[in-house]
Every structure is written in structure tokens, then in C-alpha cells.
Amino acid sequence: MKTLSRLAMAFAALAALVLTVPRPNASLVLAASAPAVSLNTANAGPRALEDTTEKAVARDYATAWQAMAEALDQNRADLLSGNFIGAAKDKLTATIEEQQKSGLHQRILDQGHQVDLVFYSPEGSAIEVHDRARLQLQLLDGSKVIHSEDATVHYVALLTAAENAWKVRVLQAVPSF
Amino acid sequence: MREPKPRCNQKAFASEDIENVCKFGAMTAVALLLLCCFAIATHASELNIPATVLAGSGLTIPSSGSGSATLYVSGPGTAIKRKVQLGQAIQLSGGDLQNAGRYVISLDGDSATLFVTAGAVQAMAFLARPSRVPADTPNVISGTAFVFDRYQNLVMQPQPVKFELSVNGETVDRIATTKDGVAYAKLDSSKKEGAAQFTASSGSASVRRVVQEVASNPCNIRMSAEREKNGILVRTDPIRDCAGNPVPDGTIVTFTSTDSQGKSTVDARLKRGIAEAQLPPSNNATISVASGVVVGNEIQWRGER
């Protein structure tokens, strides 16, 4: 009996300790860092990819995902301007406007991207990538979680050189590559 | 020895009390079963949706049960929250599903995903480089085409794209097939200079760009020299590239005179296809002419100071 009660006390103490340890808040994680992007350029062409371009594409694509996650969570289209352009920006802005009307928002917990660079245009102004994104996706109505899933989503993304960065012009999920 | 427990179908225990208890139990079980069926019927709304839908074509989702529920649709450009009646077909319009991508549809606790795919090619983004190019040069003009449907969705299915370069009635074309919405081609510039019409077309989409083809490097340079009051006047013949196109005005031509006093160099710009310059007087000089990497004829000048 004594042993049982000691065990129970030990478990209670352990549980209390676990509960008191601060846990990372998902939205803070999103705001704090860009997701990991692993870029494979072995199949890039027809133009050869320069080292500096490769680094810039990985950096700017990761930043775009971070901005998109924050914009869809906070319903703030202004967060998209630095990283999105053209159709991608228009569609994300429309999503945010619709979410605002419906009281919905999305939470994307980004667990990393396996990106294959599949096209680099001859004149060097456009890049297309295939992205296997590992995401935890949540659709929320206010604070109520409507849908939650862990998924690997395949995206085709088109990036174009604009100002001093690579901006996402098309971001389209596809069933497979 | 233990006495066996009474069972409902055993006449040996068919006293009235036991019968009543058995009947009550059976009725309760049936009622519970009916209640469960009713609960399932009123709330069951397992989503029956296709895996893919064509952009802009809309969707009908059958639902079962009764009562109302909330439908959620989340996808690119779409965020719908709508009250629906269970047991009736739920309509999503073409406008609700016009952007290609992944959609989550949630109804009364059940969720499903579907993909909207792009329709036929109706628009194109066309990158043509460079805007100014030397004539008669191989693989110097590049064109990249991205094909979209009417909703600005990238068309992933392979599509033929025709690249056509036309200048002064001379036309060159090439057909490439898109891969993941993109096709490209490299073309030679024409032999004759002029404003080339560079067109990419696929389906009902066609985009035109203009590429200015200019004369290439001079093919050869021929000059003559004559005495002038204050020196030697040198002048080229009209300078053309190897295809016979006049080299553009403004091109630099360098004249050099070398004699016992040293070397004199004068840069002159081509004007109406001809360059001319005045060199210092000399009675024994070697005069040469060049433009870029092309060297012209040489003149041994004999004259008085």
C-alpha cells in the first residue's frame, strides 16, 4: 500500500513538473522563424544556377511561406507584399478577405520543405520549383478548430525576380508531381 | 449443485414477473437500437466528394440525415462558412471553386480534401529576351511561355506552344511542349536586320513581343586617305555586316597613324554608315583602321609635311 501511494505521489509530482514547463506557442513559432527549405538543384535547367541565386531562392521561398502562414492566421493581406506578386498575391489576398467575412482563419505549422528546382529560364528571370511541404494545417472558426491534419502537400511554385528578391508569382497545390 | 439462472425462453421460469422483466428488457433494447439509428440518421453526413474537380465547374455534395449543419470550405481564394440542410444536395458554384489547388471541405464534423485543376489554356505570360540582338547569330533569342487558364491557374497538363520569329517576311518557328505549365525555345536571329515579331501561341492565347535585330559586327572595313590642308583625311566605305546589313550609326571606328614621330589615334563614330577622321600630317606613315575585333585595310602613306 505504501509503495502504491509513493508511486502515485511520484506520478503526480512528475505531471505537475511537465505542466509547469513552458510550451512553445504555435503562433509565436510561426512569427519567429522561417521554415526549413532544402533545395535540390540537380535537375535545374536550361540555365545553370549560380550559387548566389540558389541561396537567394531558398531564403526568399522560406520567407514567403513564413509570411503566408502569418497572413492567413492573422488575416492580414499586408504581410504578403514583400514576398508575393501577381496571381499568387491576388489569390491569397482574396482568401484573406473571404476569411475575414466568414470569421475563419488558418494556422499552418510548417515542418519543412523538400524543394526541387525544375526550371530556370534562359534569361534568368523565372524559376519553377516542386515543393513537398510537410505541414500541420488547421482551419479555425474563431478559436474553434474545424479541421486539423498533418499532411505532405505537393506544390508547384513559380518565382520571378523582382526588385531585389525572388517573389512567388504562382503557388498551386497539386495531387502529385 | 447450483441452480441455473432463469432465461426468457425457458418455460420452467415462466412466472409472470420474470416474463415482464424479459419483455421490458427486450423493449428497452429495441428502443435503444432505434435511438442509435435515429441519431446516426440525423447526424450522419459522411462527405462523398470527388478527388479532383475542374476549375470553375462547381460541385454538388450529397448529404444525408436531417436538421441543419455548418459547411466550411477553405481553399485558394475561398473561405466559406454556410448553414446547410442535411438530407439535401449542397451546391458549390463555379466561382467557389475557380482557383486551382487544394480545398478542405468540412461538414458537421466530417472533413475531406479535393483538388481543383486548371482548365483549357486561355492566357499566357511570355518572356522574350533580349530586346535588341545582332542579326544572323545562332541561339541568341530566347522565349519562355507560361500557360494559364481563364482563372490564372497554371495549366499542368502538357500543351503545345508555337514560338514564331518573323522579320522582313522571313519566318522561323518552333513548337515546344509545356512541362508543368512552362515551355521555352531558343531561336537564331534572322539574317536581315529589322524589328522582329516574336510570337508565342497556345490554344486561344497568343502574345507578341518585338525584338530589334540590328547589324552584327562589321564584316570588313575598307578605307581611303587623301591629303588635306591640315593633315590626312581618312574615310571608310559604307560598313556592313557579313549579311549585308549596314552597321548601326554611332559604332566606333578607330583610325591609327604610325610614323617616326610616334602613334596618333582618332576615334570616329559611324555616320550614315561611314566613318571619317583627320589625322596629323606626315610624309611617311602607316595608317590602319579597326572597329571592335575587325581590322580593316592598311595604307602606306607617302607625302610631304
What descriptive keywords fit this protein?
heterodimer; A: 177 residues; alpha+beta; Nuclear Transport Factor 2, Chain: A; 5-stranded mixed β-sheet; 5 strands; 37% strand; B: 305 residues; mainly beta; Immunoglobulin-like; 4 domains; 1 helix; 9% helix; rod-shaped; disordered N terminus
Describe the structure in your own words.
The complex is a heterodimer of chains A (177) and B (305). With 177 residues, chain A is α+β, with helices and mostly antiparallel strands. Chain A has a single domain (26-174), classed as Nuclear Transport Factor 2, Chain: A (Roll), CATH 3.10.450. Helices cover 38% and strands 37% of the residues of chain A. Chain A has 4 helices and 5 strands. Chain A has a 5-stranded mixed sheet. Chain A is globular and about 65 Å long. Chain B has 305 residues and is mostly beta strands. Chain B is built from 1 helix and 22 strands. In chain B, strands 1-7-6-3-4 form a 5-stranded mixed sheet, with no helix packed on it. In chain B, a hairpin with a 2-residue loop joins strand 3 and strand 4 (78-85). At the A-B interface, helix 4, strand 2, strand 3, strand 4 and strand 5 of A face strand 3, strand 4, strand 6, strand 7 and strand 10 of B.
| Biggest interface pair, counts | A-B, 37 and 38 residues
Gross morphology of chain B is rod-shaped
State the CATH architecture of chain A.
Roll
Please report the distance between the alpha carbons of the first and last residues of chain A: 62 Å
Extended strand count of chain A:
5
Shape of chain A: globular
Q: How much of the polypeptide of chain A forms β-strand, as a percent range? A: 35-45%
The sequence of SSEs of chain A as H and E is HHEHHEEEE
Q: What is the level-2 CATH architecture name of the largest domain in chain B?
A: Sandwich
Query: The CATH topology of the largest domain in chain B, please?
Result: Immunoglobulin-like
Strand order in space, largest sheet of chain A: 1-2-3-4-5
Strand line-up in the sheet with most strands of chain B: 1-7-6-3-4
Share of residues in strands of chain B: over 45%
